[in-house]
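Why do we care about 3D structure at all? Because function follows from shape, and shape follows, mostly, from sequence. That is the central idea of this module. The next example makes it concrete: a single protein chain, its amino acid sequence, and then its structure expressed as tokens.
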Amino acid sequence: MSMAMTTDVLQPIAATAAPSFPFSVNVFEGGSFDRAGWPSITDASNITMHVYQSREFLDVWMNTVGDAHRAQSFLVVVKHRERGPIFYLPLVVEKKFNVRLLRFMDAGVSDFNAPIVAPGAELTREEFAAIWLMILSRLPKVDVIDLQKIPGNIMGIPNPLTYLDCTPHGTCGHAITLSAMAANLNAATSVARLRKKLHRDFRRLNQLGETAFVINPPPAEADEIFTTLIQFKRQKYMATTGHDFLAMPGIRRFYREMAAPRQIGGLSHISALICAGKVVSAHLGFTSHGCFYYTFPAYDPAYRQYSVGHLLLQHLIDRCSFDKCATFDLGEGDAPYKNKLATHKLPLSDYESALSAAGLVYLQVRRARRSLATSSAHDWQPMESDDARAPKPINCPQHSNRQRKAIQQ
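And the structure:
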């Protein structure tokens, strides 16, 4: 295979792989999960993945965000003739301003965009380059390859997409290895001070009314928590950015589906901190393969002085530690609380490439807009975030028997 290069424009020229080439590329259109043999979050086979690429997550995405964006979904499966599957890569083709874009199934709801990989089946740069051209040759013609938030590894396994000519994303992923957190819990005196502060905040909150944590409650209560969570989140978006992310096509439908009873306790996890019968902080996240994904939290700003968002976060960390989860994933973004809590960071990168003149113009215009937005941001002072005061991991206060009964398993 060969490629003809011009400035910022990459034109792949299709060619047939040599007969000795041991890899095959199959592309399945739409939600053909069974035909593709796509892994599930319940799959115990020898694969490594983030929840965002599981068949359960992608199925919801296709039927909500993907449908709203009129995206063409493709499930790419790469196999070795002897070793079997090498990686699974979910992609979509979207049209914007009459420009066809090759993207991940994301639109803002996925923190990490990566293939599902088979451990022990790492590719060389040359092997991946040949496979990548085969993938492009089997997909519809596009003007731009626009791949964002590519992690450097998938749970410690090298990510073959990093062989692309990537650039830094600008933010990192953050996670807590729970065994490491427990070993270093009392490593600094500042941790003890922060622990006392959260204990004090919890006691003060409890003076306003009976306080309890609720985890994956029955459907009616879960629906109430979700409705309140959406209200808090929308207020936060408008206060900090002036832009309601939940109003974007398919986004609210996506989270509504993730909070449905059939998802809770399997793919999804919903929780809240309740004070005097009122939801004061809430979170909707995911679980998969020993990892808890902290992705969609919000709190009532009227209770900010009680650190209600941090109290719920800490309760979830402690609960995951007790349940022997391996990792508590804090997601993408460099918020101060993530830098304080995380035991390690996950570098992220992007890959953008124009495959046509229209694609080149699209990328040039987008880069110009980003440059203007960055310049404007220097003149904008963000509101102080409750997240900026997040504590180090601690043990949450002990609850009374009556409070413990309120916690739903």
